[in-house]
Amino acid sequence: MLNSLELRWFISGELPSEVSSWFERDKLGGQLQAPETREDVYLYVPECEYMGLKLRQGRLEIKWRQAELESLRFERVEGKLEKWGKWLCEDPTTESFQPKHVLSQKSWVRIGKVRSQRLYDGCALELTQLTIQNNAWWSLALETFGTEPQKMDKLQSLFELIGTTYTGLQLKVQKSYAYPKWIEIAMRH
Question: Could you give the CA distance from residue 157 to residue 26 in angstroms, rounded to a whole number?
């Protein structure tokens, strides 16, 4: 099992150009990764925001929220920090965990993603354009694997960097949650 600390925001609509420009600026530092385009298939479980299950690139991924931690606030940015556990299930025969086996069922949802990341020492800043049921959304996230105190310190430093440099729409705590809750909101949208 992998443990992570995560902080995410989901915003309805197309990714604003000022947010994209902000993310690509050298001022943010870190190592900018090339954008990755993919489609993940998630199990939609209404009223279950503490567990996520998805098919990604031939494997099954299960995430379980272990704890809701404090809210962080800095300038125009406020979000909820969460601790997650993640399990990866792989099938060496590649016969299992294929979207074609589940997509005929309404409980599975396709989500298109174009994800860009900046990697820092032990942390990632992620900007993702999302498509669900032909609707556009975008997400900004901070994530670090491990939950040791030094990981929390690095995540806090990255959060403060965002707070001092971010100039887009205000990131509010009400828009800060993980994928399971976002999927429920997006499905009703």
Answer: 17
